[in-house]
Amino acid sequence: MPNILEVHNLAKNYGDFTAVKGISFDIKEGEIFSLLGPNGAGKTTTISMLSTLYTPTSGDAIIAGHSITKDPMAVKQVIGVVPQEIALYEDLTARENLIFWGQMYGLSGRSLHSRVDVVLEQIGLADKAKKRVKTYSGGMKRRVNIGVGLLHKPRLLFMDEPTVGIDPQSRRAILDTVKDLNKQGMTVLYTTHYMEEAQELSDRVGIIDHGELIALGTQDELTRQVGQTDTLILHIGENEDANALAASLKGIKDVLEANATNHEVSIITPQAENILAAVVSKANERGIKIHSIDIREPNLEAVFLHLTGRALRD
Amino acid sequence: MRKLLLIGLKDLTLMFRDRAALTFMLLAPFLLTIGMGFVTGRFSGNSSGISDIPVVIVNLDQGELGNALEDVFFSEDLADLLEPTASDSPEAARQLIDSDQASAAVIIPEGFTRSIIPAQGTMFSPNAVAPQAVQIEVYANPSRPTGAGIVKAIVDEFVSRVEEGRVSGMTSILGLLQSGLLNPQNAESEARALFKNVEETESTAITLKTDKEGAAATEFDLLAYFAPGMALMFLMFTVSYGGRSILAERAQGTLPRLMISPTHTAQVLGGKVLGIFFMGVAQVGILILASTVFFQVKWGDPLGIIVLILAAVFGAAGWGMLITALARTPAQVASTGSAVMLIFGILGGSFINLEVMPSFIRLISNITPNKWGLDGFTTLALGGTLKNLTEPVTALLIMGAVLFGVAVLIFNRSGIMQK
Question: Which residue range forms the structural domain that includes residue B78?
Fold first, then answer.
């Protein structure tokens, strides 16, 4: 498949602060590509540059053959954007919102109205389309927010954390919609800080932290970076010294890595069961009470932990 | 252009769905207009609200008609409305106007009466020479258009009554002569008697406001002053409400969403400005329509009204854009807009006629769209037409253009519409 997006050394500075530090990646036509990273990693700034809202400080990106810096109007015709915040007119109905935004993308007449009908069906709001958006639940608003991005059938859809702050049912519906759209041939660039979403949706994942793309590949390729390891998470009390415990655990055989975060100690090991007794014993020796223990098999969280020494949610 | 229109119409739709804003934009000015009507006695017919208009009368004619006109200005009927002073020097009178000490000077030229009523014994003489036409001069003070307009209306009414009487009287006399019903020797005395009647009726021909049925006198309805006064004051709220929507859209994410749609920055900004313009025109239009329907306010020349509304909204929208450009948050626009609305309302004459204000206030008032808009509406209410609106319309258009220019410069510097 040809590349629909090629990002070359894209960077964005705000004064002395560098939000995005010269990242490069590409997305093939028909892919779901996730940018996974914690809050403040630079995901939204990247999407904002790619969607031509922000001018990059340096670098460029080519979308369907058009440069985002030299030919932004052509880029805008090709892309659809679902912003992180709900960007709708709350005093208009869902249908009126879709009609207005469709008109902004150059749709008109019968084709506009039939497209609005299709999108309303797609987002499951056809029967509530005449109600004002302000009367909707958060999940329904999110669905309209997505619908606006789909109206003009974009070849490449940017979705910036579309499931933030919604109930599990709406989240499920949104993830299913993304998969359906991809089946219909739409390429999706999806940003999230939820590891589970990236794992469920993505063909390839880019892990971004502090404005840098620190890993890129398929999920298999990425988890191979940390080897066939398990992650053991110890949850300890608020007043316990997590750093001291992590340091003492590094002496245990088969502990590849031990890192302390807020009231947690994360341990990477080839086989969690083999070190469990020794870990508990070390904690007892230091008088630290363990509240609970999680064992996780290799996943993107472990990759992030491996690469940054921090958990994704930190 | 289509996108500009779509964005503007969307903003207009949103305005009509915002009940709180509608209350402030339409109901509040309407109720305040009613209040001003009661306070000034418009609904009881007791008082005009406009009073003591300083006017200088220079009667160089000293004939019957000149004296009659002078009597009109010094009559008891108009004693509350006018504050006349007599002068015998046209130059001195004009100087008083130029130094802003009076609203207008009425200069009745020598021979005014003779130009209408020939000298004794010459009226029906075959050798009579047609009298030379002379005109009464109304030297108006441009900074006091209401007072000057009322004075001019009084003079116009007088002249039109005299002319009407002269023509109908002469026609009747000639008809009687031709039919033999009137002896030629008595023709002149009969004609003079008719003129005498005309002179005598002038003192009651002019009233400021009357609801009496059949009154043909010049009328100036106070609500034609206060209704636009309130509409223009609350127009300032509307334009700042419209400007605020730019910052509100930025905060709620719809402005960035517009910017990433295939829409140029200029189209987005232009559409927002058009939205403000639509809101202002809708507001003033509805208020004018409502006061016409409910209070029978006579606004004057419809074409002039339309042009004046468009110009006034343009000028006010310039202020709305400037306030928005200088603010950082929608709340700042709201508070600044409300303050400006009240200050401009006072300075611009929405509550008190500017002619009773000190000269420095009148000077400052020139920066307000209220002042120019009110000048225009008063001119139209006093019988003016579109061609008399050159000054207020030009001032409003220049105001709007300059303020839009400054606002766009500030927008560019602050980067609100930029990436």
Answer: 53-202
